[in-house]
What does this fold into?
Amino acid sequence: METAKKDIRALTKEQLREFFVNNGDQAFRGNQVYEWLWNKAAYTFEDMTNISKETRQMLEENFVINHIKVDQMQRSNDGTIKNAVRLHDGLIVESVLIPTAKRTTACVSSQVGCSLDCKFCATARLKRMRNLNPDEIFDQVVAIDRESRLYFDRPLSNIVFMGMGEPLMNYNNVLKAIDKITSPEGLGMSPKRIVVSTSGVPKMIKKMADDEVKFGLAVSLHSAIDEVRTSIMPFNATFPLKDLREALEYWYSKTKNTITYEYVVWDGINDTKNDADALIQFCKFAPSKVNLIEYNPIDDGEFQQANSQALDMYISMLEKNNITVTVRRSRGKDIDAACGQLANKS
Ligand code: SAH
It folds into this structure.
């Protein structure tokens, strides 16, 4: 139910401190509550056991904590977990826990639905309803960290912004969430273990470079030929490869970080030597890594994963040009949790 009370997590630490001073308490109380909210990820004022009962009641009268609820959790045969996450206004997003031998990775959503229209992606079929707030992104991470401890006996180790939505079209909130996830007063995770994946919004890639962010960047490229890319990712007409490349050069000049590209090879779309050549020309200006992602079918068969010869051709051509290449196996396909399959079908 919508409520008139303000979400306490929309307040900065400074504002929380002020709130307590204005209510005849000490500023320090604000620090304590801030710690409960962001370090201990408390979902109720009740939980804040070192705060007096009266103060907790006062908080209750003034604020809410609009935390997410994991509505449904599905487990794949391969251990992958998908959470359908209910937001305070009833909308749903999905996030995924991907376990490997050494790591637990959280794949989180940044928007409800998506405004981009990639032809091969199930999320693209959902209208973009709204951006997620920083706390809604933060909560997805907390939920997956708790599941990782419960089911795999270890904390979450990595986070990828590869769930629903385009993170760079909700940049400010993504940045605020990452700040809470990485700061010592929050969850204290290393930004080096976080990757933000984008379809390629040139202006925002430059902004990330200017903001000197410490997390990694992955670009969903899928084709380095404008005509082909526009046919499968129509927003490429607005943000053509030339602009994307220029933004990436800027990013590299500032950060000196390896750039990761996500790339699916489809039958009859981007499976020729010419396509692989264009990819190499596009990314060889900086140390690069190409993740060849397995296609997860979402539809009527318009897109088909290319055969293994085409993949081998890509691998050998990339390697000859000293570009690191990895082939990423799908995880969680059986529960519609794999890349591009998140569409609130659970
Ligand atoms: N909007 C961001 C974040 C989504 S990440 C981005 O585009 O990067 C999801 C990743 O899965 C992207 O690399 C996307 O291109 C890829 N993807 C989308 N649909 C897919 C599908 N059906 N099979 C495999 N990968 C897919």
About this structure: The CA atoms of residues 18 and 175 lie 24 Å apart. The first strand starts at residue 6 and ends at 7. Residues 118, 120-121, 162, 166, 197-199, 220, 262, 264, 293, 295-296, 298, 339-340 surround S-adenosyl-L-homocysteine (CB under 6 Å).
